[in-house]
Amino acid sequence: MIARSTFRTRKTSIITITLSALCLSVLLQIALAANPISFCKCVCGQEKSISPLPRDAQHPIFGGSSKACGACTKQYCLALKPDMCKGVGTGVGDELVTSCFERDSFKDQFIVYLFLTITFGLLGYAGLQPFLKGLWQNRQQRAYTTVPL
After folding, report:
1. Are 63 and 78 in contact (CB under 8 A)?
2. Which strands sit side by side in the sheet containing 37-44, from one edge to the other?
3. Are the CB atoms for 85 and 135 separated by under 8 Å?
4. Mutual angle of helices 106-143 and 2-33, in 10-degree steps
5. What is the greatest pairwise CA distance in the chain?
6. How far apart are the C-alpha atoms of 111 and 107, rounded to whole Å?
7. pLDDT tens string 69-79
8. pTM > 0.70: yes or no
């Protein structure tokens, strides 16, 4: 009777430690993924330019402002490349189109890490399933032996 309770306690502690490590790794990935980088894309005719937007040092958590895309303007693009729109239309930037996007955002990284965690978890379970099934059958055979009449 004592051996069974020791086995259950040990099994429960292993499961608890494994789940705690899994939760900590997920939280760590969320914390690492919370630092998106904003880019400004400038398009004028066939000329294209993508440049990272400067970060606002005031934001304590993300390292950048959530309003970083507000800096992606025609003036910003023309300041980076003054001759970008030469030979296109009037040449003063009237045809300049700007767009802002984030790479490696929190949502994107979280989805990728969640997919990888689930995939490797299922592969690990599939690999260990025959071993665990054999252990379970051995345990059941030892626990329930037939009694001769």
Report:
1. no
2. 47-52, 37-44, 97-103
3. no
4. 170
5. 104
6. 6
7. 888 888 888 88
8. no
